[in-house]
User: Fold these one by one.
Assistant:
Number 1:
Amino acid sequence: MTVQDTYIIVDIGTGNVRVAVASPQGQVLGVAREDIQYIKDPLYPDALYFDPSQLWLQVKRLAAQALAGIPGSSVKAITATSQREGIVLLSASGESLIGLPNIDHRGREWESIITDKSRVYQLTGRYPTSLFSALKLVGIRERKPEIWQQCSTFLSISNWIEFMLSGTARYEHSQASETLLYDVAQKQWSPELCKVFGLDTALLPPLIDSAAVLGNILPEVATQLALPATVKIVAGGGDTQLAIKSTRPAVDDVVIVSGTTTPIVKITGTYTLDTEERTWTSRDIEPGRFVFEANAGVTGLNYQRLKEIFYPNENYEVIEKELEENTHTFCMASLGSLLADEEVSLTRGGFIFPAPVSHLLTRGSFVWATILDIACSIVKNYRILAATAGHQPGYIWACGGGLQSRVLRQLIANLTGKKVQIRKEYQQSSAVGGALICNEALHIQVAMDDDTEVIHPVDSDHYATLYAEWEKTRRYFRDMN
């Protein structure tokens, strides 16, 4: 049997847990996944949490499943990535107390303690809301004293996975950018920000660079997963940053990461802010680089849910065929994506089409309108990003499972007037990024496959008209909210 060197990449998303096995060349050899089980917290109007012990069991189970399908795999390293604003609280003895996902908003009631939000934006690169980790901690402090009294520190979810694997608690810089307690420009925790939230700096764990080795796998975990004790545990990073890394972009490149949500980012070499405070700026996992971001919010999830309604028994290829055959563009949609120049996303949305109902209206009309809504939301955010930070190259990199739609890829090219470039394995971009990080940690140099699919823009005048119609639809639903 041929022995193949491999890496394990643990990816904790908003909706599910994925464990991938990849080669040093970035080929994804196997993936196992399960949904995350969230629990509603009745002490707050909008709070969810998860049981870290259950998530840890899921990770170990999925790792075993993914490896079982790859005979001859010799695991050399494990790294992790996760939803960027989620955290796990730890006791002084290392007990995992509670997990708070990005969609937990238990801190919303205490947003008013931030008296100078512009100052916080200047330091953190993001307008402060309950999405971010500091206000989750405040929510625990104010209403769950039995947990707060035990809490000694906290970690991002991916850093917590690495802690469970290695026994070493460190916070990686791209993940620390999401806490509201980290000075992004200075690349360090901020005592000033801790004072804003009334949090002791003793809560903050040591920081670590992505691709640093945390140590060998703990002996008991190695035994449970039937792995050698020599497996290295490597610091990963935010899921967006790992996905970006898979495209191997340069400074000044723009990358679209299309998944459940869709970040649109520009890679910069300097700390860049938006005077209107509409964007996010984070540390990249590459030294000396920043990620300047607008986010289109829920996008891929809308597509998935519409598929469940209109195409419950068909695969995505059937949808793509019907979309490509659709020549009628009279059905328009606005379904709640985020725009950087709007303070909140839509809470009411829907479809608009001529009345009475035309015989030309099909199920494909509704899904096409959804895809157009996703594309226009991405492009609107891209335009805001480019207007703020500039973008000269004639191409945009794209990755993520949402880009499996050929129609979406073409719409983005047509609406931006830029070529859209996609690498192989783009659907599993975070796993590929994780493999590249492991290569760096182990000082392994491999030749990556540079084959790139390029989608060229066409018929820009027609799509400019569609974009204007989408904006009109968006305003209509905005007025209803």
Note: The mean pLDDT is 95.
Number 2:
Amino acid sequence: MTTLTSTTDTVTRDALAVLQPGFTGTSAPEWLLRRVGEGLSSVGLFGRNIETPEQLAALTAQLRAERDDVLVAIDEEGGDVTRLEVRHGSSFPGNLALGAVDDTALTRAVAHELGRRLAECGVNLNWAPSADVNSNPGNPVIGVRSFGADPHLVARHTAAYVEGLQAAGVAACTKHFPGHGDTAVDSHHALPRIDVDLETLHARELVPFRAAIAAGSKSVMSAHILLPALDPHRPATLSPQILTGLLREELGYQGLIVTDAVEMQAIASTYGIERGSVLAVAAGADALCVGGGLDDDSTVLRLRDALVAAVRSGELPEERLADAAARVRALASWTREARGAVREPGAAAQEGTAPGTGQNTGIASDIGLVAARRAVKVTGEGAPLTGPAYVAAFTPVANIAVGDETPWGLAAELTRLVPGTETDTYNGNSEAPAEAALRAAGDRRIVAVVRDAHRHAWMSEALDALLAARPDTIVVEMGVPQAGPRGALHIATHGAARVCGQAAAEIITGG
């Protein structure tokens, strides 16, 4: 393990300690190892860094050879947002499916199994769960990532998720404080604004965060959203009134405060990442997430130097930076102690129970499929398939959090159960998608797969045309089922994870 060099002064080490950068590649680049040796305390992983459980375990071991207590973070929500299984789809349904079942013991078990797999690969901080109350059904970025629209339902499942994840030795990061559910804008692209009064905020948005704090969430992630009732000038990530006044002082939270990615346009296009990072730490943030889009050494150095310069100029109090770094190191110490109760990284891969092995058997490793099956809601009494079908997948543009690398739908699972089934994908730019689907289907029964049909007029119109021509069409909604059931058989999966598709395919075939 590398010893911190004496030439790296305390302020510089603290500035490195509060960064959570990403990188490119499936092994740690030399520059990253060098920064870890100089004091970098955290590293963020994304889908681009992960191929197999064995490779991921080797990567995390490589990082810990430099610093035994390094925080290795990941954005692994399960469901639509997966990094562990980015190429195949998740073995776990997401939050909306768990909320639809409304069994906190099940949510706790799913989170524990997900945490176990992360821990066995050497990951010890998960940027999850989403505690956002999806009160705006048109929300373009939360949707199925939320447990639902009822604050108290979201609260009890957020607490259960935190408990399950942390019982596996992985720190939870409850997000996006103080609540991203009532937005019509994706903060990856612009700065959302939520115009609610304080009474509404306390009765709705803050209820799940209070539950997460009571459950002992080790970290909380801030949202890049403007709430004029609390701070009319700065988004939550940069607001002392929100991070220090509300979260620390009013809610009494003493764990690590992590920012959402500072290169998101809500911050980058308004303040710039250097200025935004300084303002975030000054406001009360302890760790800066960066690396989903910026993933090189120069970004780390830019942010490190901006923080150091702010301390030197007196803009950022040295004690505030030192306090932030101390909170990062305290969480790192907790994860190292928790790791003692978890098997060494790589054990999962050897036993064939890690994500992506295709050998998940037994109640613990199959809990995701169990949950997905329980989450399905079926309306109508259409006859099951008796022969090959035609799957028309009406596909919206994926938001950045979900990404477009991860396959979704049910065509692969349905083809496995009914050989000869074929599929095509249609989007908002497709010319006459319903007519094209009807031509391609021929006399085969049509399975129309949609995702948030209520948010996409073209998708709803295509469904209308299909059902008018072929009333026996099976409709599978894999997003928020806001539009209501239609079709001879309507299946709401409450998410687009691979296991959600499997659960729907089983119903379609009468399994």
Note: Residues 1-7, 344-364 have pLDDT under 50 and may be disordered.
